[in-house]
Design goal:
heterodimer; A: mainly alpha; Cyclin A, domain 1; Recoverin, domain 1; 4-stranded antiparallel sheet; about 55% helix; elongated; B: alpha/beta; Rossmann fold; Rab-GAP-TBC_dom (chain A); Rab-GAP_TBC_sf (chain A); calcium (chain A); TBC1 domain family member 9 (chain A); EF_Hand_1_Ca_BS (chain A)
Chain lengths: ~900, ~260
């Protein structure tokens, strides 16, 4: 490496010495003009990359690899025959002589290439390329100079075409670094069938059927293997019609393995989304194309609008099959030459090219297009134009040279000259513009068809079913279901099987996410305050109840739910009245469907209730569940069929095993109705925890002017946020300001009046467990403490923090309830998760409780005084002296 | 060509017709048979959609079918509304040797009935009856008598095991079942063979009879002349070498002679 100092700019000349002369008999000189640090950086990166490359040991495989490239042979033969025409014939005799020349080629070698070699001036093209490849490297190490592009535009020689496509598109590097991958894919999936393989079989004989190779097993077999290998490698994309045409076309020029990698590059990188099941790439590019026509050829565009002709009716097949089945093959391949040549690392350049080409086509036919009145006329005109591409563009011209210009040449000329303004950036910008729109229309389409394909809407309206679909779709995005496992291939295809339409089914994991979109109790919504910031968080809840629901709705025992299952399942719960809800809840927990709950099931049911009530304010619900349990056991014992002859008054009844039938629906109903809270829960509250509307963003008090408020807004990435959140939480905990508020699932009881428990019908043994005081204290604690968060301090209206009244400190209800059940309603104080302002349920000492809270507010404000403005301090003072909100 | 005088063009009624159905059931072949009276054993799959036109005489009227032949593969489904919008007629095709294709056809019917033009005339067509007929017997009398010398002896979907043994055993969709469904859903029903030509013309004849022509005329009045002019040129582009309706017409069929 040499460097020349030239004021501030440095010219770096790197000479890449070939590792061995026979391998790369050319020296590459890279001259870099840039600022010194940039140049230094480049050199060090280059050095490291080269070293890493050597360490990977792939250099060893290069020698074998390049033998598969025709270019090597071309250059080798050219070396010896420098002064003679580097003709194909000579090259071929070389191939025959030397044993280790085993370049890969396509079906064309055996079945002839399309077009007349003489007319295509194969020999002179080959000669030009030989010279270029010798001077500027080839295959893996090709350096592209402008001359390369020009040579490509003239058309590639047939034998070199496959390799150049590979090189220009970059797929050669994939083939180089994944040796044997193609064979491995085929071997591992041997005999496997899928929807894709079935569809491939249908189309094998329908891909360029006029080309001789595709009338023989040679060609068909190659095509089958390439398409199948691709579908195995990319099961999501699988197989899309048009890929068969593409693959058939490239197989004429390249070997199966080469074609496989090229197809991979085309589908994944050059035309992303074109062949995906939603075909979003195609639809997007149609929109982009229409918009470009609007910009570049406004007259034509307006005419089309006026006669209501959609451009895409004609252009869509062009884009999808790269003109291969629209134009005569010879011309289509030359367009593909240009495409690959312009397909740089930035894939979209390629798209720019196909847009340009298509617009040029429209432009050339502009006058005729203006006479077109309908879709049909448009398509016919285009078809005529394509079939006449070989004809002279200026047949009337007196100049024989002008007459010799074919329409195809004219097309290329117009494309590259006049529409060079359409750049990569233009296309990218247009794509961004339309992406949202296209995605939206695809989504709404698939939504409509999913809703339409439901066997029954049950009692939902179409809009409601649409909302269910939205929730499902969102859940699938968040938690993709495992890839559908195809049933093992069977020889017997019964009618029932074939009628089964493939449908999306979701597993338990996705179901949880789905449910969290619908049911309030299936998500954890909390507001975390840690003294620095306040943030809303939402998580998917985990509970056995949700698992139970999943299997309850899985009526076909598939271990997965379809959209229909979800609709039917929700229907079974959302429209229920009191009695139906009680029955539904009972059945959900009656595992063996014998009409009886066992003792264990009663406990599970209570846990389910507690799960749903876990974030309710106060302990009215907790009390209700406790009463439910004690009543259930009391009724259950009382109504139990006693063994004959036993003394009904005897205490020593035979103990009921926990897994024996214990209470039936009627008893369960009676127990539920004995409690006002539970009755209200089953009457309306439970059904209304299911909401078929998008979950609203959690409403934080709209201020982030806490200590880290401005920092907060500048943090954009989720990862950063998580880190900051964790950090502030830690700090918050250490200074005792960490507080988590949960939103209750029902949120009905925020007022202070507590529903009174009904007296038990059998025995008045129930202790009045929950007191007004305890509920009141919970309220009192909640509201001022939410005021204490610094984020709220600058609020002009303290009332605007009302949303947080919906949130309650989390009582660890489960533990509490279990203890309750065990100790027969002995109250245990329950701790609040991480919160300093513990929700001590001391039943009398509300006064002291409040004092504690006020102390806390003081301490809090003092701790953060420094960050407050004068006005904020004043407000804070006011708050301190204000009466606690009731 | 088929339409020498300008006045006849004025009288012609344009009917937009769309073909729908699962992949490789023979949609394109049906159109090709109708438009050009040809059959290609290995027809390339339709990408997006193909467009063809054909004229058809019904009593004193000339109908000009504008046929949109759509791609069958599932993922092209989302493009279909682009083609069936404003269609007056739809031909939903299934393969009688493939049970699942009838199911797909049913979903198409459902979609059309909900989303397409409310007066759309829908025909349900079970194709490939030649596969279930004993190969010895000649095709049905409705066929155009020109013998088509095809390499294949059946329109079996390429790649599937060719018809061996009892031909009737290949049938997976009983005629009665499909017919009952068609009746229930209010569809025209046909069983056809694009290979032999059996029943193809009838589809288009019956559709022509059922279409509310007066309504179309009323709605497109004013635009009809213009459309006719464009159609004349378009027709010249495509149907050249194909079967001219009027010339080919005297086959004893009373209505549509294609």
């Amino acid at each position: 490496m040499a460097r020349n100092e030239d004021r501030q700019l440095y010219h770096y000349t790197c000479q890449l010495d070939p590792p061995s002369d026979d391998l790369f008999p050319c020296v590459k000189v890279v001259q870099l003009t840039s600022l010194r640090p940039t140049a230094d950086l480049f050199c060090s990166l280059l050095r490291d990359a080269l070293k890493a490359e050597l360490l990977r040991g792939q250099m060893k495989s290069v020698k074998g690899f390049v033998k598969t490239c025709y270019s090597e042979m071309l250059v080798a033969s050219g070396n010896e025959e420098d002064d003679r025409d580097g003709s194909v014939a000579k090259a071929e005799s070389m191939a025959g002589n030397s044993s280790d020349s085993m370049y890969l080629g396509g079906l064309g070698l055996k079945f002839k290439f399309p077009g007349d070699a003489r007319k295509l001036r194969e020999a002179s093209k080959t000669k030009l390329w030989t010279t270029y490849l010798k001077a500027h490297g080839r295959n893996l190490s090709l350096v592209r100079y402008p001359q390369c592009t020009r040579l490509v535009q003239v058309g590639l020689p047939n034998r070199l075409r496959g390799e150049m496509w590979e090189t220009l598109s970059g797929s050669i590097y994939l083939r180089f670094s994944n040796p044997g991958e193609y064979e491995r894919l085929l071997e591992e999936n041997k005999g496997r069938t899928s929807t894709s393989t079935e569809e491939i079989e249908k189309d094998l004989h329908r891909s360029l059927p006029e080309y001789p190779a595709y009338q023989s097993e040679d060609g068909i077999g190659a095509l089958r293997r390439v398409l199948q290998a691709y579908s195995f490698k990319n099961p999501d994309t699988g197989y899309c019609q048009a890929m068969n045409i593409l693959a058939a076309a490239i197989l004429i020029y390249m070997s199966e393995e080469q074609a496989f990698w090229l197809l991979d590059v085309i589908c994944d990188r050059l035309l992303p989304g074109y062949y995906s099941p939603s075909m979003h790439g195609t639809l997007l590019d149609q929109r982009v194309f229409e918009s470009l026509v609007h910009r570049c050829l406004p007259i034509i565009y307006e005419h089309f609008m006026a006669v209501d002709v959609q451009l895409s009716v004609a252009s869509l097949p062009w884009f999808l099959s790269l003109f291969i089945n629209s134009m005569p093959m010879v011309f289509a391949f030359r367009i593909i030459d240009c495409f690959f040549c312009l397909a740089s690392q930035i894939a979209s350049l390629y798209d720019a090219k196909s847009h340009i080409q298509t617009i040029a086509i429209l432009k050339i036919n502009g006058e005729k297009l203006l006479q077109i009145q309908d879709d049909g006329g448009f398509i016919h005109l285009m078809r005529d134009y394509f079939s006449s591409l070989g004809a002279s563009a200026h047949p009337e011209s007196s100049d024989p040279r002008a007459r010799a210009i074919t329409r195809f040449q004219e097309l290329l000329l117009v494309s590259f000259r006049e529409f060079a303004i359409i750049t990569d950036e233009t296309i990218q910008a247009e794509r961004r513009k339309f992406r949202g729109e296209v995605i939206h229309s695809i989504e709404s389409f698939s939504k409509r068809s999913a809703v339409r394909n439901l066997k029954t809407l049950e009692r939902f309206t179409k809009e409601q079913a649409g909302s269910i679909y939205d929730a499902l779709f969102k859940a699938i995005c968040i938690e993709p279901p495992p890839a559908t496992v195809l049933p093992p291939p069977s020889l017997l295809t019964t009618k029932e099987n074939s009628e089964e339409r493939p449908e999306t089914r979701v597993g338990l994991k996705t179901f949880k996410v789905f449910l969290s979109e619908i049911a309030t109790w299936a998500r954890v919504e909390k507001i975390v305050s840690n003294g620095f910031q306040q943030r809303a968080e939402r998580e998917v809840a985990e509970h056995e109840f949700i698992d139970r629901l999943f299997f309850f709705w899985d009526t076909n025992y598939r271990g997965a739910l379809s959209f229909q299952d979800l609709v039917s399942g929700l229907d079974g719960v959302m429209f229920n009245d009191l009695m139906e809800n009680i029955e539904w809840f009972f059945n959900l927990h009656d595992k063996n469907k014998d009409g009886f709950l066992t003792k264990d099931e009663v406990l599970t049911l209570s846990e389910s209730l507690l799960f749903i009530f876990r974030y309710e304010v106060g302990d009215a619900y907790l009390g209700a569940v406790s009463r439910f349990m004690s009543n259930a056991f009391e009724y259950g014992d009382a109504l139990l069929p006693r063994p004959e002859g036993a003394d009904p008054n005897s205490e020593a009844t035979t103990p009921i095993e926990s897994n024996q039938p214990y209470i039936n629906l009627a008893t369960f109903r009676m127990v539920v109705l004995a409690d006002e809270i539970l009755e209200s829960f089953f009457e309306t509250d439970f059904s209304s925890t299911f909401k078929l509307e998008p979950v609203p963003m959690m409403d934080l008090p709209p201020s982030h002017t806490g200590l880290l408020g401005s920092l907060w807004t500048t943090i954009t990435s989720d990862d950063n946020r998580k880190i900051l959140n964790r950090f502030t939480d830690e700090v918050g905990k250490s200074i005792g300001k960490h507080q988590v508020l949960y939103r209750p699932a029902i949120g009905k009881i925020t007022a202070l009046e507590e529903p009174k428990a009904r007296e038990s019908l059998l025995t008045p043994t129930m202790r009045r467990s929950t007191s007004k005081a305890s509920l009141k204290s919970a309220e009192d604690i909640l509201v001022p403490s939410s005021f204490s968060a610094p984020a709220n301090l600058n609020l002009s209206e303290p009332t605007s923090s009302i949303p947080s009244a919906e949130y309650s400190p989390m009582p660890t209800m489960f533990e509490a309830a279990r203890a309750n059940a065990a100790a027969l309603m002995e109250r245990t104080p329950f701790a609040i998760d991480d919160a300093k302002d513990d929700d001590e349920d001391t039943e009398e000492d509300t006064e002291g409780e409040e004092d504690d809270v006020m102390d806390e507010v003081d301490a809090f404000l003092e701790a953060h005084d420094s960050g407050l403005s004068a006005a904020e301090q004043e407000l804070a003072q006011d708050l301190i002296h204000a009466e606690p909100v009731k | 060509m088929s339409d020498p005088s300008g006045s006849a063009a004025d009288k012609s009624v344009q009917v937009k017709l769309v073909l729908l159905g699962e992949a490789a059931v023979g949609k394109s072949s049906i159109v090709l048979r109708f438009v050009s009276n040809e059959f290609q054993a290995n027809k390339e799959p339709t990408i997006g959609a193909a467009f063809l036109t054909q004229k058809c005489r019904l009593e004193d009227r000339v109908l000009r079918y504008e046929i949109w032949d759509t791609a069958g593969q599932e993922r092209f489904h989302s493009l279909a509304p682009m083609y069936y919008r404003n269609a007056q007629a739809a031909v939903v095709v299934y393969d009688i040797t493939k049970g699942s294709s009838l199911e797909k056809a049913k979903t198409w019917v459902k979609e059309l009935q909900r989303q397409a033009n409310p007066n759309i005339v829908i025909a349900l067509v079970g194709n490939k009856v030649d596969l279930v007929q004993p190969s010895a017997s000649s095709s049905s009398p409705a066929t155009t008598p020109e013998p088509e010398d095809e390499a294949d002896d059946a329109t079996a979907t390429p790649g599937e095991p060719s018809a061996g043994g009892e031909p009737e055993s290949l049938r997976q969709v009983p005629r009665e079942e499909a017919e009952a469904y068609a009746q229930e859903a209010g569809l025209l029903f046909f069983e056809t063979s694009a290979k032999t030509g059996e029943g193809i013309v009838e589809i288009f004849t019956e559709i022509a009879k059922k279409i509310p022509i007066e309504q179309i005329l009323a709605s497109s009045r004013g635009g009809a002349g213009r459309a006719g002019a464009a159609g004349g040129r378009a027709g010249a582009g495509r149907t050249e070498g194909g079967v001219s309706l009027e010339e080919n017409g005297s086959k004893g069929k009373d209505a549509c002679n294609c």
